[in-house]
Amino acid sequence: MLLKLYDKNNNPDDIQKVIDVLNNGGLIIYPTDTMYGIGCHGLKERAIERICQIKNIDPRKNNLSIICYDLSSISEYAKVNNSVFKLMKRNLPGPFTFILNGTTRLPKIFRNRKEVGIRMPDNNIIREIARQLDAPIMTSTLPLGPHDDIGYATNPELMEERFGDLVDLVIDGGMGGVELSTVVNCTGSEPEIIRQGKGILEEG
Known about the structure:
Strand content: 15-25%
Order of helices and strands: EHEEHEHHEHEHEHHEEE
Structural class: alpha/beta
C-alpha cells in the first residue's frame, strides 16, 4: 500500500494508519533526511527479526539502529554522557547515526551487540510518526541488490512496485536522496567518524 504524506498538515487518520501498522508488527518504508529507510516498531522483536531476514543481517554481527523523536527519548534506549549529549544536541536532527551503548529498555535482539545506532532525521514525516508512536522505530537501508535501478531507492512508486510484497506500507514523502548518513561511534573515549556520509559533524 502506498500512502502519500507531507512535511506538515497531514490528515491525522493517515498518520494513525502508519501507527496501527507499526503497533501490529508491520513493516514500513519511509523518507528520512538521507535515503528512504525500511523499519518497524523498535520494541517488537518479531518485526525486527523480519527486517533482519529480508536484509540478510545477523544481529549478532551487525549494529541495529533506531529512530528517536527527540533527545530525551534517546536517553531511554542508549547510554548518553554529557559530552555525547552536547554533540548530539549540536547535530540533531540531522543526517547522522550515533553508535552508543544500549540500555535494557531495548529488546534482547539489540543486546546481542550491546550497541545501538541512534538516528534523529531532519524529516518531519518520520519524526511525527515516532512522536505519535511514542516508541523508537527500528531503521535500516532498503534491501537493494547491486543491479537494482536507482529509482528503487528514490522513487516511492517504484519502491512500492519492488518491495510492496515485503512490507505493509510504503510512505510517499517525495523523491528520496542517495547519500547515507554519517556514522559516529561514541562508545570510546572520543567520538570517531566511521563512515562519512551526508552530514558534516559539528564538534565543540
